[in-house]
Amino acid sequence: MADAGSGHYGASSQQHGYQQAPAQSATARHQQQQQQPAAAAATSTAAGYGHQTHASRQLARQPEPTPQVVLSPTPSHGSSASRKTSSRYSLTDFTFIRTLGTGSFGRVHLVRSQHNQRSYAIKVLSKERVVKMKQVEHTNSEREMLERVRHPFLVNLWGTFKDSKNLYMVMDFVAGGELFSLLRKSQRFPDPVAKFFAAEVALALDYLHSLEIIYRDLKPENILLGADGHVKITDFGFAKHVPDITWTLCGTPDYLAPEIVQSRGYNKSVDWYALGVLMFEMLAGYPPFFTEDSNPMRLYEKIIAGKIRYPAYFTPEAKDLLKSLLTNDITKRFGNLANGSRDIFGHVWFQEVDWERLYRKEIPAPYVPKVDGDWDASNFDAYPEVDLSEYGSTGPDPHGHLFPLF
Q1: Which of 222, 225, 242, 323 is the most buried (most CB within 10 A)?
Q2: β-strand partners of 214
């Protein structure tokens, strides 16, 4: 989201004692990333639920196959059983209310189910644009990954369907908006607030890794807040089943691990590196390798150099964990050692976290969004609405065979 669309974020930030950050803010990162050359742009599926600048913040290349990784042995909750989601719904099952976000391939709508009268989000993707942007594999992979997962801190996919022009994905409507919006309003989070969000994200990543799925696109824009203040990670366009190693260059520049930047084979530990970047950005208000240089190569040089200046107000415990996550040496990176994710969950920074209670959402969130009923979308930007008459097209379908799972 480009803006929260609701002034209550600022008031809540003051109540929680959020402090003003240095000039290097998450907003500045957006402005810098928008200046990247088109060659560095990849994909926006409007899944976040939508940021019109997402396309300019992403990288993507075609995947390459390959071999071996250290899998976290930490037991994870949830089931990997796939659910029947293909062609489960049709357009007539929903009433379209408003647009929640837009992207390179289409947009996300808030809808009402004609059957249970509940609110959902439907992501609509143009087949033609997906094919043109060479994102068929990522789109099919997103659908496949979402069908496999079920976790309290991941967005749910309820079903998919398609017509001759578009693909449709029926997902949770997560009413609290993006964590990015809250972070931008707050400038930076106090240590306990950053810890709460980082802990829930860590549980979700550990669950994905237990299914041998790398997420690869962690950032505040892809973390939604429910009406209860708990997180829901969305946008699985870069998620991939990887039992060992992969080489695909994709993700958001500020969050890329050095081995990705250097086009080396990488494993699931890149997600733990990204968790370190997220922790740093929540605590500081800007990512660890922030640069005002519009040339992305300067950013990549800083990531490879790996030299980080930690603000003086970081606690020693937070700084210690960050050093173990943001190390370039994967033989020393937490999450990639013999104890797997247990090194992270057992770190002193997380020592007061009751992980079972957190998983069950029994620990109250430090910030509860202002949400007035099931249909309140005020935490999302307002977008010009589009003509819905093209939805449900029945004409020629030259690209239909490319999306067999929908």
Answers
A1: 222
A2: 240
The amino acid at 334: F
Q: CB–CB of 19/189 below 8 Å?
A: no
Annotated active-site residue 206? The verdict is: no
Q: How many CB atoms lie within 10 A of CB 353?
A: 19
DSSP 168: E
SS3 (DSSP) at 306: coil
Please tell me the distance from the alpha carbon of residue 174 to that of residue 120, in angstroms, as a whole number.
8
What is the pTM assigned to this prediction? 0.83
Return the CATH number of the domain spanning residue range 91-174+373-402: 3.30.200.20
Question: Exposed, middle or buried, 81 (CB in 10 Å: 0-12/13-18/19+)?
Answer: exposed
pLDDT digits 0-9 by tens, 174-225: 999 999 999 999 999 999 999 999 999 999 999 999 999 999 999 999 999 9
Domain ranges within the chain, ordered by starting residue: 19-44+64-77+178-359, 91-174+373-402
The tens digit of pLDDT for each residue in 20-29 reads: 333 344 444 5
State yes or no: 132 annotated in a binding site: yes
Radius of gyration of the chain (CA): 20
Q: For the purposes of burial, counting CB atoms within 10 Å of the CB of 269, is it exposed (0-12), middle (13-18) or buried (19 or more)?
A: buried
CATH 1.10.510.10 given to domain 19-44+64-77+178-359:
yes
Which of 163, 206, 217, 254 is flagged as catalytic?
Answer: 217
Count the Cβ atoms, other than its own, within 10 Å of residue 148: 20
Residues forming beta bridges with residue 60, ordered by sequence position: 250
